[in-house]
Specification:
The chain is mainly alpha-helical. Helices cover about 70% and strands about 0% of the residues.
Length: about 180
């Protein structure tokens, strides 16, 4: 279990830095574009690259959020069940997300990328297929994270469900939630 936690921490650090670098690149591209336009010039390639970097950052960021287990969950009904059933629902939820990642992102993304390798991107030295490769990569990351969460849920203790009446809003606000 320690090895899985260490592996997840390494993946978290790598994805966090990738997101930071992509965001920094996006800021630099947009600022460069604004400055160049203010002097009467312009580079059309910066807009195209900024759009691609923005999409990539969003997709990699989604994988990172799933890895942190901070994705949106509506658990109003789940809270009404016993803790052991909640564990089952967690495994089911992670399985559904993993299934989506495998079917749509990995398989569908690979089909999309492989069919678009001969299409060029206007103004950039990339093919559409190279840009679309982010889908299967992010799908693989999401699948790995979901499998890690499933293992953690199965091997971990049953979480105690706190009733809504006992949730301290001030504590949540201090934690930044």
């Amino acid at each position: 279990m320690k090895a899985l936690n260490a592996f997840q921490r390494v993946m978290d650090v790598i994805l966090r830095w990738i997101c930071i670098l992509l965001f920094a690149a996006l800021v630099i591209l947009v600022v460069y574009q604004v400055v160049i336009r203010s002097f009467g010039g312009g580079n059309a390639w910066t807009e195209a690259l900024a759009r691609i970097v923005f999409i990539w950052q969003g997709i990699i960021g989604a994988a990172y959020v799933i890895g942190e287990n901070d994705d949106v969950a509506i658990d109003f009904l789940v809270r009404k069940f016993p803790a052991a059933v909640v564990k089952l629902f967690e495994v089911l939820a992670h399985s559904i997300v993993a299934g989506f990642a495998i079917w749509v992102m990995i398989w569908g993304g690979w089909e999309l990328a492989s069919s678009a390798f001969d299409q060029t991107v206007e103004l950039l030295p990339f093919s559409q297929g190279q840009i679309y490769l982010i889908l299967p990569v992010a799908g693989l990351l999401i699948t790995i994270y979901c499998l890690l969460h499933i293992v953690t849920t199965i091997t971990g203790e049953v979480k105690e469900i706190v009733p809504e009446e006992e949730i301290d809003i001030a504590t949540l606000q201090e934690e930044g939630i």
